Amino acid sequence: MKMATEREAINLLNVLHIRYRRIDHPAIWTMDDPNTPPGLPPVKNLLLKQKKRDQFYLYLTDRKRVNFKSLADQLEIARSRLNFASEEELESLLGVVSGMVTPLALMHDTKNEVEVLLDADLQQLPEISAHPNINTATILMSYQNLVKVLEKMGHTPKVIYN
């Protein structure tokens, strides 16, 4: 699969008339990266899988650890079957590498293999942050605009309670 690009992420936002702010910064590879600019919304992105069958894109606040038991119960699957996706799966499904996982890369999931899960607490944030397929910039938008973008990409998100 071709890698996700910044240009296609920005083009998507512009075509959908999504209002956003952009912050450029040094590369951010983890949630605790010292290059993270102060004041960014506290979110994290994970690509999970159920063994070799189903993939789940989980977007939640970074104040929480993932409660895998609760998540598995809500998805009606066994906890033992829920794992993190590999680097190869990130690249083949979304066209990104670790440290660049973003909801904007879901445009590469053209076969709709990934179910999008949004933590209910995201709705309380004044803005949601997402990389534009690169980790040297952050896009800030409203939760409602994030949902609009996801739905235009064919991914109606499921709200989960972590």
Question: So what's the CATH class?
Answer: Alpha Beta
Mean pLDDT: 91
Unreliable spans are none
Compute the separation of the termini in Å: 32 Å
Helix content: 10-25%
CATH topology-level name: YbaK protein
What would you report as the Rg, rounded to the nearest angstrom? 15 Å
- What count of structural domains? 1
Q: What is the number of beta strands?
A: 8
Number of helices: 4
What is the H-and-E element order? HEEEHEHEEEHE
Overall morphology: globular
Specify the oligomeric state. Answer: single chain
User: Which percent band covers the strand fraction?
Assistant: 15-25%
CATH architectural name: Alpha-Beta Complex
Counting helices, strands and paired strands, the structural category is alpha/beta
Biggest beta sheet summary:
5 strands, mixed
State the strand order across the main sheet: 4-2-3-5-8
Explain what the structure shows.
- The chain has helices at 6-15, 68-75, 87-94, 143-152, and strands at 21-24, 43-50, 54-61, 82-84, 114-119, 128-130, 137-141, 158-160.
- It has 162 residues and is α/β, with parallel strands linked by helices.
- Helices cover 22% and strands 25% of the residues.
- Strands 4-2-3-5-8 form a five-stranded mixed sheet. A three-stranded antiparallel sheet has the order 1-7-6.
- It contains four helices and eight strands; from the N terminus they run H-E-E-E-H-E-H-E-E-E-H-E.
- It is globular, with a radius of gyration of 15 Å.
- It has one domain (6-160): YbaK protein.
- Keywords: Protein biosynthesis.
- Residues 43-148 form the YbaK/aminoacyl-tRNA synthetase-associated domain.
